[in-house]
């Protein structure tokens, strides 16, 4: 008689290799975008309490404990921070690894005694270990107020160690930079690796102005090292001018929420090394004028610029764009055009000014969030303009050097014809079908083909061109595309 061995219910889990668990727990330690700041760390802590083998994994994997978050929370007497013992435990678990550190608060906290600031002082003592540091100025302002009100002389600030590992500093913008920013000064004396500076804060009262740059210069922040700037908080043109003028080595800049640009008073900021500029977010103004992110372009000179991303809620301004090109004398090679209030003629006019363009992205990210956005569709006028040929110059009138085009399939105004595919074929053939030249097409949102078979005409024609040799990428690879591919002769 054959003897049968009954496996335990958890036999698979019991034999998972240590390294596999370690990698799984690392994924757990990374919080998702919708999670709270410390969700990943708390999940690791919970995991360590499941069983002895899992605790052994977490105890010997310091990389699981490198996301250090100190967040003010409401509750108790005046609300407070996590206790110092818990923070000390997390820091010890992380070993000597570089940290991602954040101190945050929904509003400025109130410290009423030493027990309220113990964890914060420990955080400040260990900031030199941060690779990425995110700081809310409200917390530092509250700490300064505590020191002043209680006549406390904090040795933490006097003995702050330099951030030799620091690569990115992110500041949550507030009204009073003259208080919070000097508290951090010891961190960049020196900070030889810091290259990214970010200011965040999505609300109108969380803005930065020229005062932020002034106070950072006063405490010798190494602006000359910064190559990447990220602004996700409101900034006016005066603040932007002061900031850009202080960044001689800037190469990449993302600007959101630029407001109250005055063409007559706006000073020209020259950024000699800037090669990538992104305008994003929503335009707004404190006056009665119609807001436009485009106006800030007229205040920037970037002779080295090659990549421009225009993806924002607002208007197209041909005057500002023309002024920008005249000031910059740059050769833009890559463009993402996604302006909600720009129509098809605006798009064509823009491309006519960019004869050196090689990569064009017309995918709609911001435009999809706004009803009746004019820039949403790719219509007949645009297709005709892209197909127009200049016999005297032996090149296309629009974007003669274009090598790559990216669009969303559901932004084609009429997919019952093959007008778009015909234009693509013309461009591809005149480029030598990839032999003497090259041309690439990327189609996104291919899952939105529509229910009417006639709406598949463009896709079928493009797939036939792909079979003939066109460099075509379709995302995602839907079941309908697979079906069509199988039926191709």
Strand arrangement across the biggest beta sheet: 1-2-3-4-5-6-8-11-13-14-15-18-19-20
- Work out the helicity level: 25-40%
Distance between the termini: 59 Å
The total strand number stands at: 20
Strand content: 15-25%
The number of helices is: 17
Radius of gyration: 28 Å
Q: List segments where confidence is low: pLDDT < 50 over at least 5 consecutive residues.
A: none
Give the biggest beta sheet.
Answer: 14 strands, parallel
Helix and strand content put the structural class at alpha/beta
Mean pLDDT level = 84
Question: What's the overall geometry?
Answer: globular
InterPro entries: F-box-like_dom_sf (IPR036047), LRR_dom_sf (IPR032675)
Tell me about this structure.
It is a single chain. Helix content is 32%, strand content 18%. The protein has helices at 11-14, 18-29, 39-47, 52-59, 84-93, 114-125, 137-149, 155-158, 177-183, 210-218, 237-245, 318-328, 344-352, 380-387, 419-430, 457-468, 479-487, and strands at 67-71, 99-104, 130-136, 168-172, 196-200, 228-232, 235-236, 252-256, 258-259, 269-270, 276-282, 300-301, 307-313, 334-339, 359-361, 389-390, 395-396, 404-408, 440-444, 471-474. The chain has a 14-stranded parallel beta sheet. Strand 16 (389-390) and strand 17 form a beta hairpin. The longest helix has 13 residues, at 137-149.
């Amino acid at each position: 008689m054959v003897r049968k061995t009954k496996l335990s219910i958890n036999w698979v889990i019991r034999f998972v290799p240590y390294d596999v668990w370690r990698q799984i727990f690392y994924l757990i330690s990374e919080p998702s975008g919708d999670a709270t700041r410390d969700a990943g760390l708390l999940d690791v802590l919970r995991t360590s309490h499941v069983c002895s083998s899992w605790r052994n994994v977490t105890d010997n994997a310091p990389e699981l404990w490198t996301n250090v978050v100190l967040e003010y929370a409401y509750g108790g007497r005046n609300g407070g921070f996590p206790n110092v013992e818990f923070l000390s435990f997390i820091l010890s678990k992380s070993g000597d690894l570089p940290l991602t550190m954040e101190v945050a608060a929904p509003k400025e906290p109130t410290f009423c005694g030493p027990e309220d600031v113990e964890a914060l002082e420990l955080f400040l003592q260990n900031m030199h270990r941060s690779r990425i540091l995110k700081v809310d100025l409200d917390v530092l302002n509250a700490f300064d107020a505590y020191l002043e009100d209680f006549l406390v002389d904090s040795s933490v600030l006097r003995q702050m160690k330099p951030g030799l590992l620091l690569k990115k500093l992110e500041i949550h913008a507030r009204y009073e930079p003259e208080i919070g920013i000097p508290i951090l000064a010891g961190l960049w004396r020196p900070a030889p690796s810091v290259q990214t500076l970010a200011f965040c804060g999505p609300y109108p009262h969380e803005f930065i102005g020229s005062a932020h740059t002034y106070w950072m210069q006063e405490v010798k922040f190494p602006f000359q090292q910064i190559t990447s700037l990220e602004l996700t908080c409101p900034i006016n043109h005066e603040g932007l001018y002061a900031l850009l003028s202080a960044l001689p080595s800037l190469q990449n800049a993302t600007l959101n929420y630029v407001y109250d640009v005055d063409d007559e008073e706006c000073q020209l900021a020259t950024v000699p090394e800037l090669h990538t500029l992104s305008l994003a977010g929503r335009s707004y103004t404190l006056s009665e004028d119609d807001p436009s992110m485009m106006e800030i372009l007229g205040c920037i000179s970037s002779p080295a610029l090659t990549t421009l991303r225009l993806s924002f809620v607002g208007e197209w301004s041909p005057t500002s764009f023309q002024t920008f090109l005249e000031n910059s004398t740059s050769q833009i090679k890559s463009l993402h055009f996604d302006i909600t209030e720009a129509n098809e003629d605006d798009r064509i006019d823009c491309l006519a000014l960019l004869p050196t363009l090689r990569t064009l992205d017309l995918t709609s990210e911001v435009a999809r969030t706004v009803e009746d956005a004019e820039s949403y569709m790719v219509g007949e006028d645009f297709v005709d303009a892209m197909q127009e040929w200049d016999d005297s110059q032996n090149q296309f009138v629009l974007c003669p050097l274009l090598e790559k085009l990216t669009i969303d399939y559901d932004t084609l105004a009429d997919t019952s014809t093959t007008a778009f595919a015909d234009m693509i074929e013309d461009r591809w053939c005149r480029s030598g079908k990839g032999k003497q030249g090259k041309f690439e097409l990327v189609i996104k949102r291919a899952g939105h083909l529509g229910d009417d078979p006639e709406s598949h005409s463009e896709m079928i024609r493009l797939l036939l061109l792909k079979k003939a040799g066109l460099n075509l990428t379709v995302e995602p690879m839907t079941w309908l595309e697979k079906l069509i591919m199988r039926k191709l002769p």
